[in-house]
Design goal:
The complex is a heterotetramer of chains A (about 625), B (about 120), C (about 300) and D (about 500).
Chain A (H helix, E strand, L loop, with lengths): L2 H21 L1 H20 L6 E9 L2 E7 L1 H24 L6 H20 L3 H20 L4 H31 L4 H8 L4 H19 L8 H7 L2 H11 L1 H22 L1 E2 L2 E2 H21 L4 H22 L2 H31 L17 H15 L5 H15 L3 H26 L15 H19 L2 H14 L6 E2 L2 E2 L6 E2 H21 L3 E3 L25 H7 L6 H20 L7 H22 L3
Antiparallel strand pairs in A: 1-2, 3-4, 5-6, 6-7
Helix pairs in contact in A: 1-2, 1-4, 2-3, 2-4, 3-4, 3-10, 3-14, 3-18, 4-5, 5-6, 6-8, 6-9, 7-11, 8-11, 9-10, 9-13, 10-14, 11-13, 12-13, 12-17, 13-14, 13-17, 14-15, 14-16, 14-18, 14-19, 15-17, 15-18, 16-17, 16-18
Chain B lengths: L1 H25 L3 H23 L22 H32 L13
Helix pairs in contact in B: 1-2, 2-3
Chain D lengths: L4 H20 L1 H4 L1 H23 L2 E4 L10 E4 L1 H24 L5 H20 L3 H19 L5 H32 L4 H7 L5 H19 L7 H8 L2 H26 L6 H20 L4 H22 L2 H32 L10 H4 L1 H15 L6 H14 L3 H29 L14 H19 L2 H15 L1 H9 L1
Antiparallel strand pairs in D: 1-2
Helix pairs in contact in D: 1-3, 1-5, 3-4, 3-5, 4-5, 4-11, 4-14, 4-19, 4-20, 5-6, 5-11, 6-7, 6-11, 7-9, 7-10, 8-21, 9-11, 10-11, 10-13, 11-13, 11-14, 12-13, 12-18, 13-14, 13-18, 14-16, 14-17, 14-19, 14-20, 16-18, 16-19
Classes of the chains: A mainly alpha (about 625), B mainly alpha (about 120), C mainly alpha (about 300), D mainly alpha (about 500).
Chain lengths: ~625, ~120, ~300, ~500
């Protein structure tokens, strides 16, 4: 299977989808699904391969190369599968919306660009695909109009700053080593001075960090994720921002190299420790901001920032366990966060776009399957044992503890408790509590939505029970980075300082559940009653009047709100205001009176001549 | 006095240029401004002429025997000035045409009144 | 032997948990100059509740309670109760930390389906309170794990048996004190009983429960107490070589954790969190810093 | 052997034929510029391979240099003349449908004169001849700016004329000074003897010439006319002014500074000036609500960027600068053409009035989007390789200074991206009030826009198509000795 063909299918599919949309909507939908499925199959068939192919002779003298190895395969398969599921989900979600051809074609373009990013074998093609990814994402984020415009703008500006930093980095590398292929640059980097390597890391770090939304580059993510169409939010949160993770992995362990990376720093401050601390901040702050969000998608968006913190913490901590945990968490987060965004999408679809946590409730009665997958997704997000999130977080915690970094571990663990708070709020305010009367006749989510959600929830449990499947792949990647191998077993990790065995837990859980269930059923039977028939100390609980989902964590909010200002974001906004003010002030030199303009010309001339005569610089 | 004598044409030329620039700088009336431009142009043309001018030189035509190239006025600047004059006239014509339109549109020739395009 | 513990641990936890419930009622009664119910009263209540009819609000309403109780039993399986833990090598203390939250979560999901505002309020308070005591609790646990360099409870117990128990050794004494300070909050007794405040929000999360549901919820409550106390005994007091000693140690800790019950009025949830984030957190933090800097 | 003289003679002759043709058929007059530009394009492209090997030096009237007027057709000249012809062709196609009212015959005459002037400036090897062609370019653009005859057009034209006339007067003084100093008007001849004269008068001459040409080249602070003129002219003229006229001005500045004066020590000053122009242009554009004015300020910024790149004066950076010229011509002309019809349909220049254009004029909006992407420098469009080259060559230079400066350039690019993408959002994603029926630009206009789109994409994907020309253009600009040698023999 050639990589060029894969990309041609991906990019060509995107274009054709748009053109087909002009012919017939049904054909287009079928074609989009087909293309995305084909991509999954093609990527899957590349499993275990490692090779490189030049595909473009010389772009301004720089040859472009594609390559595949374990790392890029992992990201490619995640991107293509999530992309495919998102396209399927869109079939229902986008029905009746305007400009659907554009939507599908952009969605496929984003997927294609992501595949391009992970399959690039040199930094220039990486950058090119990166930029294509950025602008197509911008178009999709802005798609909904209204508040989405500001969100898209913020995304674009921040991501553009990042990619320009990356451009500077790429071209600096080209200037130094004359090649941009990973192997060549890696060879050059091994003998480069630490200061140089650090500068390169920072330049690229801005780009990858912005995409991955680590603090303090996270400001674009909450609005962008919450305003984008939900199936795209799933892609965005699930895989697109993970391109930053890919970039970091590539940079740290392929280009810079493990040993250099770990020893890098200014004085006693090690770079990777600083990055870990940033990761910890990225966990804590957004988690607690997420708790007080009232928009379901914004809550998930902040949660995404926080989870990105875990990933960064994992991969920058730089032990074999932590990097494996970081990579695994990327995969897991892709699965469960996509799932949760789809859940919101399904709810949005049935409630005509309502995602305000204060006005939903009780939907478990109307959308039971959606609720079940939501619970599974939330469990994965929290990291409940026997779901995938547990394993990856466990790996990260364990290595942090064993490497004597209790404060980072505290941030990670405490972040999890925050996660419980917002996850429960998410579940409760959408699915539990009273069902408002206006949703009483609501239908279930359509099949095209349930299918991807179900698949994802199965994966959440599967990876939780048999984490060895993905961990084996991740372990190979880790070994290729130069880490020692983990002792991966199908159900966990065997090690001296505390092993992980999910099968034991599974058995215990099943036995426990069955036993308790039997005991429970042995008691007196209960009568099924409607939900309004509840105990209220003798008073009737009125419908639609009394809903304790509003201000769910009010006491905590009263305590914490003053400390949870997103000052980074307000700083950026103020900065944008300043720039606009500066522009507004500057343009006042063009006064409109031609006499002033004449004066500018003559003064400029006079200054030129005066300077020359006074100092004769020439 | 020989300085003045030698450079009188240059002084004159730059005097005209200075007057022209001054008018353009301080006047707000479009017509006066155009007049300023015209004076500036004249000054520039005069400057060009004086570059090639030789006192008591002859026309650069070998019309009579005994004429030496050394004593001839440089013909190139004259050719240049001819062209420059033509260009100047073109600009002048266009400017005056615009001035008419300007007056019709704004009802005034004061350029300070025409500040709609700014910033 | 391990197989035996698989059966023994839950049974012991069940018995001790119910005993603690009975003991606490008796304890309160004595302080208030009453005779109080007999120690086996919770057992009688539970058996009676199993025969009573009740209402159900849906499948999740049933499943949540079951899940809650089952997960509490699984946590017990991770604990060495004066012997080896049945699930010793399956994730260690980190897994326990996670599994401990499944109990409240199960109740929360179950109660959520009931659409009773009191339940929601109770759950909200429970989660906030948990955030309150988890800060010092995590610091304590992290200090222990870092100090002993393992995430396995069994190894922590073994390490203490070789030297002194943690609460008696220098940096960890802070963690021990902090644990004792937050123990009432973890057990959910009086000053911190905002969650199930009977007079205010009709027992909060349990407001909708009757019959078998209430029975299961009661057992779960007993198990929660058991877990909280046995964690202390295992992690900080060196565990025990046999179940009897373990039980006696638990009794001491229980008494220590419970005396405040009678002495203080109920706190509001913010007051509780504020308390938890002040002294216990500070002390636990000092312990953690000492562990991180000095080490073993 | 085709002579480059034809590039001037044929269009000039045809320009004068336009009124005659116009007497026969007003419609037919519009096709004359098409034919002339097509002719120029074909000739330029046919000559390109030849000039890549050796520049063609044509002497008008058969006088050998330095006595007669010389035409110097090197790679740069040919490249720009081809570019002028291409833009001229496309815009004249566009004008066939866009320019319907008013004195159309005169429009076409002036338009052709403008093109002739521009071609003349890039081909001439004679300083005074440069001035003449420059004036042809300027005068026709003064007139064309006022073509519509509305308030804004008149005002802009008057202001443009005053500043332009002042500039050309200064330029003429500078040329006079040069002649006085060297007694010759041939660029190569002056260049060969530039070091033989005291530096102060030469510098004054250079300052005068730079300022005079700089007015047209939109160098800050000489560019005050530009936003007015570009925003008030008919959009086809804005396209030509932004895409061709100011670049030709900049070319003239560069030719004088690089080749004639060989002033390598003032280049750093031009680097800063370019950066300043770039930043001010982008910042002003950022605060604009008027779409055409925004595009005009963006042109200022782009000119700054080109100047920045050229003034670094390494082969790579000059290649990048020339590439950016090509890319700017294509992109900005495309933007003006697209905006022309959008504004025509919406009846307002406010950016907010473009809401819903994505639905009303999908193809035009698409072309606009491509232009924006290209101008901002996103792959796979032409702006990407050009910006890439500039940044690469600037980073390849030793020294922290340029690296800091390139940081500022990138920052300006961010600002540029921000204001342009805001427009994209307005065009496509703002929810408009009333649904208006789909009414795209007429086919001829669309055709012309999509010619640009095709070039933007093709060169964006295969930049190597033109890099050879650009590189030899760069060496032509940088190596004075070769220039002098090839003209004077």
């Amino acid at each position: 299977m050639s990589l060029g063909l894969l990309l041609i299918v991906a990019f060509g599919g995107s274009l054709l989808t748009y053109l087909l949309g002009k012919v017939s909507a049904r054909t287009r939908d079928a074609f989009a699904v087909l293309i995305s499925l084909a991509l999954v199959v093609m990527v899957a068939s590349l499993y275990g391969k490692a090779f490189r192919v030049p595909f473009y002779g010389g772009f301004l003298g720089m040859p472009l190369v594609l390559r595949i190895d374990g790392l890029s395969w992992l990201f490619a398969i995640a991107a293509s599968v999530l992309g495919c599921l998102s396209v399927v989900f869109s079939l229902g979600y986008m029905k009746g919306k305007e400009r659907t051809s554009f939507y599908y074609s952009m969605l496929l373009l984003v997927i294609a660009a992501m595949l391009g990013v992970v399959l690039s074998g040199d930094l220039l093609s990486l950058f090119i695909f990166w930029e294509i990814m950025s602008w197509s994402t911008f178009l999709l984020i802005s798609y909904n109009g209204g508040p989405a415009l500001a969100a898209g703008m913020k995304y674009f500006v921040m991501s553009f700053v990042g990619s320009l930093a990356m451009l500077a980095g790429v071209l600096t590398l080209h200037g130094s080593f004359g090649t941009l292929e990973f192997t060549g640059v890696a060879a050059g980097m091994s003998s480069a001075s630490p200061g140089y390597v650090l500068a390169i890391l920072v330049l690229f770090g801005v780009a990858f960090g912005t995409k991955n939304a680590i603090w303090p580059f996270h400001a674009w993510l909450p609005p962008a994720h919450s305003e984008a169409p939900s199936p795209f939010s799933a892609v965005l949160s699930g895989i697109l921002i993970k391109m930053g993770v890919y970039g970091f992995l590539l940079l740290m362990f392929v280009i810079v190299g493990l040993r250099t990376f770990l020893s890098l720093g200014v004085g006693r401050i090690e770079f990777h420790t600083v990055l870990s601390i940033i990761g910890a901040i990225t966990i804590l702050l957004p988690t607690f901001i997420a708790i007080f969000q009232n928009d379901a998608k914004r809550l998930l968006a902040w949660s995404t920032v926080a989870q990105a913190g875990y990933i960064i913490l994992g991969i920058s901590f730089g032990t074999s366990l932590s990097v494996a945990g970081g990579m695994f968490h990327f995969l897991n987060h892709a699965v469960f966060k996509a799932l949760l965004f789809m859940v919101v999408g399904a709810v949005e679809y049935r409630t005509n776009g309502v995602r305000d946590l204060d006005s939903l409730g009780g939907l478990i009665k109307r959308m039971p399957v959606t609720f079940i997958v939501a619970v599974i997704g939330v469990c994965g997000l929290i990291g409940v044992p026997l779901t995938n999130g547990f394993v990856s977080k466990w790996l990260i915690y364990k290595t942090l503890i064993l490497e004597r970094s209790p404060f980072l571990a505290f941030a990670a663990l405490f972040g999890t408790w925050g996660t419980i708070l917002y996850s429960y709020k998410f579940l409760h305010n959408i699915f539990l509590g009273q069902l408002p009367q206006r949703y009483e006749d609501m239908e279930r989510a359509p099949f095209t939505m349930l299918l991807p959600m179900t698949i994802l929830s199965v994966v959440v449990v599967l990876f939780g029970v048999l984490p060895g499947i993905p961990l084996a792949v991740i372990d190979t990647i880790g070994v290729s980075f130069g880490f020692e191998s983990l002792h991966v077993t199908p159900w966990g990790i065997a090690s001296d300082t505390g092993a992980l065995n999910t099968v034991n837990m599974l058995v215990a859980a099943l036995v426990g559940l069955v036993v308790v269930w039997c005991v429970f059923r042995s008691g007196a039977r209960s009568v099924s009653v409607g939900q309004a028939d509840s105990y209220a100390a003798g008073a009737a609980v009125p419908r639609d009047k009394y809903q304790y989902s509003v201000r769910f964590y009010a006491p905590l909010r009263r305590m914490m709100a003053p400390y949870l200002k997103d000052f980074v974001d307000s700083f950026y906004m103020r900065l944008a205001g300043w720039v606009r003010g500066l522009g507004d002030g500057l343009r006042r030199i063009y006064t409109g009176y031609v006499g002033d303009y004449v004066m500018y010309i003559l003064v400029f001339l006079a200054v030129l001549i005066f300077v020359q005569i006074a100092w004769s610089p020439w | 006095m020989s300085f003045l004598h030698d450079y009188v044409y240059y002084i004159g030329a730059f005097g005209l240029v200075a007057i022209g620039l001054l008018i353009i700088l301080v006047k707000r009336n479009l017509i006066k401004l155009i007049i300023g431009l015209s004076i500036l142009d004249t000054g520039v043309n005069m400057f060009l002429i004086s570059v090639g001018y030789i006192r008591r030189g002859t026309a650069p035509i070998f019309s009579r025997p005994g004429l030496e190239p050394d004593g001839m006025v440089d013909p190139v600047p004259q050719a240049l000035v001819l062209t420059a004059i033509v260009i100047g006239v073109a600009i002048l014509a266009l400017a005056l045409a615009l001035a008419v339109r300007f007056y019709k549109t704004y009802g005034t020739l004061d350029l300070r009144k025409a500040k709609e395009l700014r910033w | 032997m391990r197989i035996l513990w698989f059966v023994l641990s839950p049974l012991m936890a069940l018995a001790v948990g119910l005993f603690f419930l009975g003991l606490s009622r008796r304890f309160m009664a004595r302080i208030q100059w009453r005779v109080g119910p007999p120690l086996y009263q919770p057992l009688i209540d539970i058996l009676r509740q199993f025969t009573q009819k009740s209402v159900s609000h849906g499948p999740l309403f049933d499943l949540g309670v079951v899940l809650s109780l089952a997960s509490s039993f699984i946590v017990v399986l991770f604990m060495p109760l004066g012997g080896t833990a049945p699930l010793s090598s399956s994730g260690g203390l980190l897994a326990v930390l996670y599994l401990m939250l499944l109990g409240p979560l199960g109740i929360a999901l179950s109660g959520g389906e009931a659409a009773n505002p009191n339940v929601s309020i109770g759950i909200s308070r429970k989660l906030i309170l948990a955030v309150g005591y988890e800060v010092p609790f995590l610091m304590i646990v992290l200090a222990l794990m870092t100090y002993y360099g393992t995430i396995s409870i069994g190894e922590i117990v073994a390490a203490q048996r070789e030297s002194a128990s943690a609460i008696a050794s220098f940096p960890l004494v802070f963690s021990g004190i902090a644990y004792l300070l937050i123990l009432p909050a973890m057990l959910g007794v009086r000053p911190f009983e905002v969650v199930g405040a009977a007079q205010e929000i009709s027992s909060g999360p349990a407001a909708e429960y009757g019959g078998p549901y209430l029975a299961l919820a009661t057992i779960q409550h007993g198990l929660t107490m058991f877990i909280g106390i046995s964690l202390f005994v295992n992690l900080l007091w060196g565990g025990a070589s046999n179940p009897v000693v373990f039980f006696l140690k638990m009794l001491v800790v229980f008494a220590f954790g419970f005396w405040v019950n009678a002495a203080f009025p109920r706190l509001r949830v913010e007051q509780a969190v504020r308390y938890l984030w002040r002294w216990p957190t500070l002390i636990a933090f000092v312990g953690l810093i000492l562990v991180a800097t000095i080490g073993r | 052997m085709v002579s480059p003289v034809l590039l001037l003679a044929v269009p000039l002759g045809l320009a004068l034929c336009v009124p005659l043709v116009g007497r026969v058929s007003r419609r037919a007059a519009g096709f004359v510029p098409v034919i002339a530009s097509l002719f120029n394009l074909v000739v330029s492209i046919r000559l390109l391979p030849t000039v890549l090997e050796e520049p063609i030096v044509a002497n008008l009237g058969g006088f050998p240099p330095p006595f007669g007027i010389t035409l110097f057709a090197g790679p740069v000249g040919m490249l720009l003349s081809a570019l002028i012809a291409l833009a001229g062709l496309v815009v004249s196609l566009y004008a066939l449908s866009y320019i319907k009212t008013g004195p159309t015959v005169r429009y076409h005459t002036l338009y052709m004169l403008l093109l002739v002037g521009a071609t003349g400036v890039v081909l001439t090897g004679d300083v005074f001849n440069l001035f003449v062609f420059f004036e042809i370019l300027c005068i026709s653009s003064y007139a064309l700016v006022a073509y519509v005859g509305d308030r804004a057009g008149i005002e802009a034209s008057v202001k443009y004329l005053i500043q332009g006339a002042l500039g050309s007067a200064l330029l003429l003084i500078g040329i006079g000074l040069l002649y006085g100093l060297f007694g010759t008007l041939n660029m190569a001849d002056i260049a060969a003897r530039i070091d033989s004269v005291d530096s102060v008068p030469v510098f004054v001459a250079m300052a005068l010439i730079v300022v005079g040409l700089g007015v047209e080249a939109a160098i800050f602070p000489l560019n005050a006319w530009l936003p007015d003129a570009h925003s008030s002219a008919p959009s086809s003229i804005s396209a030509i002014l932004s895409g061709i006229a100011i670049q030709v001005g900049l070319y003239a500045v560069v030719r004088m500074v690089f080749t004639v004066f060989g002033a390598s020590s003032v280049l750093l000053f031009f680097v800063f000036l370019g950066l300043l122009t770039l930043l001010i242009g982008e910042l002003c554009a950022f605060a604009q609500n008027n779409i055409k004015r925004m595009l005009a300020y963006s042109s200022i910024g782009q000119m700054g960027l080109i100047m920045f790149a050229l003034a670094i004066a390494t082969t790579g950076s000059v290649t990048g600068g020339l590439f950016q010229m090509v890319s700017h011509t294509l992109s900005k002309a495309l933007l003006f053409l697209a905006v022309g019809y959008m504004v025509y349909r919406s009846g307002s220049l406010e950016i907010s009035s473009l809401e819903g254009m994505g639905r009303r004029m999908p193809l035009t909006s698409f072309a606009f989007t491509i232009g924006v992407f290209s101008l901002v420098g996103l792959p796979p469009f032409i702006g990407f390789p050009s910006k890439l080259l500039i940044v690469r060559s600037a980073l390849a230079e030793q020294g922290v200074l340029l690296q800091v400066l390139i940081g500022l350039v990138l920052l300006a690019t961010v600002i540029e991206g921000a204001y342009f993408f805001r427009v994209i959002q307005t065009v496509y994603f703002k929810k408009e009030e009333g649904q208006e029926a789909r009414q795209d630009a007429p086919p001829m206009a669309l055709l012309s826009m999509f010619v640009f789109v095709a070039f933007i994409v093709v060169i964006g994907v295969y930049p190597n198509l033109i890099t050879d020309v650009l590189e030899s253009g760069a060496s032509e600009l940088l190596e004075r000795a070769n220039y002098i040698g090839s003209v004077l023999g």
